Write a sequence for this structure.
């Protein structure tokens, strides 16, 4: 009979000798991890390193190949991806369902617009600081602050109660945006969004060597890389693990020493920061900001990005965001192939309806048939080729 | 005093509609433990169906027909999209209903077009004088319908076999299965009932003003109502709905005068403020069951 005494001791025999992230991997054994640090490393396989390098080079080459309007679309996609990463951190990693992302987006957009707005206008606040990092961080910080104010609700409420409260926030936010003319310009009037000025160059205007869209594409893609790295690092650090613990079982998390309130608060603050930055950048592409553009549909679009891309994955959020950004463009092409569709908004059926219909149906279809989203599709494809020609 | 009374009556009238919608949310919640964000679309679909049927068969026959039609739609939704998701996290199911809502609304909007559609109700904005007060007939109709519908629902849940089976399935699915209750059929029935209820509410949302593409937002006001009342309590939903209606009505009448800095049309978002206030004090609503969790 075995007794508990027969079991090998589970205390770590050589804690100090356990290789950390810096420990060398044995050569020729790509799938062998000899330490937790290696497993959790940012790029834990050689394939990932190579793929990232290739993607970076491609991203840098694209602006010299693609048309300007496509570049603008990709720039928008990059900004949406920043927002989607933020939503994924709070909803995917920390499990706090938020339908209020549009609200945080709006706060970021208006804070940035006010910081960067022209001074001296009596009807419209403005501080005249057009330097991009300043208004970007201001937008993010203000949204993070609001996230902090809202987070006590999250620590008191669970699940669907929280979803509905955040939905209420969107309606309250829309009301404030409509009524606070001095900040938002009012319905139908709007105000100019923040100017993306970096070291004295307004990136939204074409310069001698680059067009405006090329500059914006490079700027937004660069920022996306920064924010994605930050998000990935948050997700794989102690903070991210505490998020996952809260999501999977908050009581168990509390028992194992995770401060649940703090984790939820942090999740909302970080998500608010991402959303604020995304809001600030999103409208600096189009240059114009209308108070009615932060409704429930925007929140739903972000939820769709997260779900279609892949819950609790950073790369999934990015894939989902690009997918949603390109979707309208794809549906615009539909009338050529489906002649009964109209491209005019006043006729039925038209492409705008198809677009909205697709948001809805894609959410439903992905949740039923591919719950892990595009990331899941990728994982399956990868696993297939990993073991090819064997089936498993 | 006269103003206060009229404001209250208007609030109770619209509150009755919110209460009906709230009850439809609660019925689904009790059977599937999920908040169906598809209810706004079902409500809109119901109202539009009434507006098409009222011409040929008259309003009084159109409402029950539309309720049956939307009940069938609710049944179909449950069968095709909710049933495969049994056992998955409720959040996922809630988001599915959100997707359904968007998709259904697009289709319904095609039938609405760009105009306001009249639902063909017999009341319009006519008033009847009660004790010297000019009360709109439609408010009376709304309250009467709420009383009838909720009374019928209570009787159904209390005295009929199916009602008993639904309560059993809601209380504990496995035990209900052991007792011979078809839990699947009860879930389907609850979605059908909620659909029918949403359609009736839709008809009365349209009474007096008609429906257009933005009418669906009204159904979301039932969300504060159910949260205030507690997600799993039909009584709570009724009280919450009436409360939301009255609060909204009072803000509509008096906020411009006393709290002008809140901006125009603040009454439309006042239910959400009420929601935040109630939840900060009582996190499970006024009548909700406190979630007790075993570790």
């Amino acid at each position: 009979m075995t007794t508990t005494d027969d079991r090998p001791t589970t205390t770590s025999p050589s804690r100090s000798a356990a290789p950390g992230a810096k420990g060398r991997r044995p050569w020729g054994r790509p799938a062998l991890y000899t330490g937790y640090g290696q497993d959790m490393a940012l790029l834990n396989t050689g394939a990932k390193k190579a793929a990232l390098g290739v993607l970076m080079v491609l991203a840098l080459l694209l602006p010299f190949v693609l048309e300007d309007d496509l570049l603008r679309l990709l720039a928008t996609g990059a900004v949406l991806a920043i927002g989607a990463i933020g939503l994924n951190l709070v909803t995917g990693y920390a499990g706090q369902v938020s339908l209020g992302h549009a609200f945080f987006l709006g706060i970021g957009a208006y804070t940035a617009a006010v910081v960067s707005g022209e001074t001296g206008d009596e009807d419209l606040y403005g501080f005249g600081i057009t330097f991009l990092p300043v208004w970007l961080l201001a937008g993010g910080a203000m949204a993070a602050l609001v996230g902090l104010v809202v987070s006590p609700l999250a620590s008191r409420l669970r699940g669907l109660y929280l979803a509905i409260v955040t939905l209420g926030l969107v309606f309250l936010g829309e009301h404030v945006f409509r009524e606070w003319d001095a900040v938002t310009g009012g319905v139908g009037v709007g105000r100019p969004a923040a100017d993306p000025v970096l070291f004295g160059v307004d990136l939204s205007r074409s310069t001698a060597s680059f067009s405006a869209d090329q500059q914006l594409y490079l700027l937004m893609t660069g920022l996306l890389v920064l924010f994605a790295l930050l998000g990935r690092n948050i997700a794989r650090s102690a903070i991210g693990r505490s998020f996952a613990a809260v999501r999977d079982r908050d009581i168990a998390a509390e028992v194992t020493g995770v401060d649940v309130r703090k984790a939820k608060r942090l999740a909302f603050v970080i998500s608010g920061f991402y959303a604020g930055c995304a809001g600030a950048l999103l409208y600096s592409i189009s240059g114009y900001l209308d108070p009615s553009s932060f409704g429930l549909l925007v929140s739903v679009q972000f939820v769709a990005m997260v779900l279609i891309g892949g819950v609790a994955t950073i790369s999934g959020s990015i894939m989902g965001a690009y997918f949603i950004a390109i979707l309208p463009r794809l549906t615009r092409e539909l009338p050529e192939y489906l002649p009964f569709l109209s491209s005019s908004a006043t006729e039925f059926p038209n492409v705008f309806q198809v677009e909205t219909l697709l948001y809805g149906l894609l959410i439903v279809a992905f949740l039923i048939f591919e719950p892990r989203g595009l990331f899941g599709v990728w994982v399956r494809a990868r696993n297939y080729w990993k073991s090819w020609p064997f089936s498993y | 005093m006269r103003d206060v009374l009229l404001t209250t009556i208007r609030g109770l009238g619209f509150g009755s509609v919110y209460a009906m919608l709230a009850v439809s949310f609660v019925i689904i919640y009790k059977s599937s433990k999920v908040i169906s964000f598809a209810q706004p679309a079902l409500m809109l679909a119901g109202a539009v169906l009434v507006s098409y049927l009222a011409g040929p068969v008259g309003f009084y026959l159109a409402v029950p027909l539309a309720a049956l039609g939307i009940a069938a739609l609710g049944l179909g939704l449950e069968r095709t999209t909710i049933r495969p998701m049994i056992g998955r996290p409720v959040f996922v199911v809630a988001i599915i209903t959100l997707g359904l809502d968007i998709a259904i609304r697009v289709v319904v909007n095609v039938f609405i077009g760009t105009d306001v559609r009249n639902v063909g109700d017999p009341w319009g904005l006519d008033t009847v004088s009660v004790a010297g007060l000019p009360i709109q007939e439609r408010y009376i109709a709304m309250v009467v319908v709420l009383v009838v519908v909720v009374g019928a629902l209570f009787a159904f849940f209390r005295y009929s076999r199916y009602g008993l089976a639904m309560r059993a399935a809601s209380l504990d699915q496995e035990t209900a299965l052991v007792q011979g209750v078809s839990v699947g059929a009860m879930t389907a029935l609850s979605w059908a009932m909620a659909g029918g209820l949403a359609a009736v509410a839709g008809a009365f949302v349209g009474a007096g003003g008609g429906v257009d593409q933005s009418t669906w937002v009204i159904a979301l006001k039932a969300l504060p109502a159910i949260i205030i009342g507690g997600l799993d309590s039909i009584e709570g939903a009724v009280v919450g709905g009436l409360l939301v209606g009255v609060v909204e009505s009072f803000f509509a009448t008096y906020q411009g005068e006393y709290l002008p800095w809140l901006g125009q049309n603040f009454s439309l978002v006042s239910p959400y403020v009420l929601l935040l206030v109630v939840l900060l004090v009582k996190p499970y609503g006024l009548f909700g069951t406190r979630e007790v969790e075993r570790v």
Summary: Residues 2-281 of chain B form one domain.
